[in-house]
Design goal:
globular, homodimer, 6-stranded parallel beta sheet, Diaminopimelate Epimerase, Chain A, domain 1
Chain lengths: 320, 320
């Protein structure tokens, strides 16, 4: 971490351009970490570029600093330092991966166990609850600025990536950081309302429809919910309005593996897996070309939703 | 708080009997606080009586110390000191209220704003997130013992009474306490699994049935779900398996007041209210003879479920 801090400091002193970027299809940790790092650097130097991901899910529209984000096509500056946050692999950047070609130095900050250490400097801490936790530790150690907005982004990163402080990865340090964020003036209640109490009506309907049709297999050890194209039209929901469904399945007694199969198109299926105690979700998803964490992972499939379900069930059965 | 600590210390020295009791129809905060206080005192003296409430909801069966609880009829000892936890009013003790007659001194530890200060010594801290937070502060200040089991009870008390650290009442101190609980060896992941990832199949079915029939009023500012006797038989669920329903309604965008109406019998309806920003749930529930907190309150009604709904809608409309 020290070499990263020294390098960022000297880049700031030299007035070099620094870009912050994260993965496509972003979550709270990637957006929160990117914004926290970017906003802090911006208080030190003018040359900070916030790289916009492909989409910004509705849940995160309240995050401060989003308006600073620039699409890849609108970035004309040469980038001296590219800070990649919460990305296990350069491919996860999607179209923004092109920045790798034009950036002189890559700093890779992540907590995914599957991280490929693609940076010139790598701060990869798999035992950290979230990239947000690493960013807070880095900013604190470096004595880089933290204000209410930056603290809000870090709270969001940590809360969303720990299932509201419930995962195995949560430690004493996680809650100590949150406690310190209150010193920086965060309104925890407002952040929680924004994150968890603004489920749209369409999403509410999609949730109810999906869980009404959930299926259990293997004595209730596996729970599967499918969201089909038909359901989007019935509920007026977008395909990205499925948050909370797979967690609802997982939270049923006896369920070890919870799966959400999301039909984006006939042969374009997104898988989300959550496990409770002994099945490695990362391992199963890696067989479908995806990955993530041991208790929460994702992948894609180019089969039909029924065929994907069959393959998935076969695969999970090996580990039950 | 100091006078309570001094009094408890001298009672322990004199070998007096101390009983811990909480409200009927207990929640995580009442059970967690009662057990934490009782288990800590038990490490100081033999004369601790854990008074059993009317029921123990399934979610909390994992709590350490439950086996020490005694029913009121089996308690023959005279009680010198009665520590009442998380109770706004003696009536909330239900049948265990009889202990008030035979106890020489009452210590009242609570965080409800509606607390009637019924104790000889009152530690009432409405700005505290939970009674568990007050108990932790008391044990720490008094240097009374805290071990992994006691810390587990306190975690449960705080987490459940703050909606997983999301409510307005959560402060820097709340997370600082949780951070310290990790020092006492708690397994946060296990506690969270026990609390939030063991929804029974019957409860899952009841949840889906209830939310499938939810209704919105006043441009979606009010959301009401009804659980009827008929639904229990359809899903094999118990009337106390409704946790999570009212929070699900509240978490819908635009909803200010979320209500769950639970039919225990034809003219025995339980109300649960959650509000988001400006409606005082405590005020509305107090009109039905109940109460609680500004954002979360409960009450009962002896009207039919339909009549109760009408009355409730009229009342809420005054504050929208």
């Amino acid at each position: 971490m020290n070499s990263a801090i020294d390098f960022i400091r000297s880049s700031v002193t030299q007035g070099l351009s620094i870009a912050v970027v994260s993965h496509k299809n972003p979550d709270g940790d990637s957006l929160g970490s990117l914004l926290a790092m970017g906003l802090s650097l911006e208080k030190l130097t003018k040359n900070v570029i916030f790289v916009k991901p492909d989409i910004i899910p509705e849940d995160y529209l309240f995050l401060p600093g989003l308006e600073k984000m620039k699409k890849i096509d609108d970035i004309n500056t040469d980038i001296a330092v590219l800070i990649v946050l919460d990305c296990s692999d350069p491919d996860r950047l999607g179209l923004n991966k092109i920045l790798f070609e034009s950036s002189k130095k890559i700093i890779n900050i992540d907590h995914h166990i599957s991280n490929t250490k693609f940076g010139d400097i790598n701060i990869v801490v798999p035992e950290s609850s979230s990239t947000g936790e690493i960013v807070f530790d880095l900013l604190s150690k470096a004595e880089f600025p933290i204000d209410t907005e930056i603290a809000t982004c870090i709270y969001t990163a940590i809360s969303t990536d720990t299932g509201r402080f419930s995962y195995e990865s949560v430690t004493k340090n996680t809650h100590l950081i949150i406690s310190k964020l209150y010193d920086f003036g965060i309104n925890g209640y407002n952040i929680n309302k924004n994150l968890y109490q603004k489920r749209s009506l369409s999403r509410t309907k999609l949730f109810i429809l999906a869980v009404s049709n959930l299926k259990f297999y293997e004595d209730g050890k596996i729970a599967i919910a499918k969201v089909t194209k038909d359901m989007y039209s019935k509920t007026n929901a977008h395909p990205d309005e499925t948050e909370g469904i797979v967690e609802f399945l997982r939270d049923t007694d006896g369920v070890e593996v919870a799966c959400l199969l999301k039909e984006l198109n006939n042969n374009d299926i997104k898988l989300s897996l959550r496990t409770k105690e002994y099945v490695d979700a990362n391992k199963i998803c890696s067989l479908f070309g995806g990955g993530g964490h041991i208790r929460a992972s994702g992948a894609s499939s180019t089969e039909t939703i029924e065929e994907t379900e069959k393959m998935l069930l076969q695969e999970i059965n090996k580990y039950l």
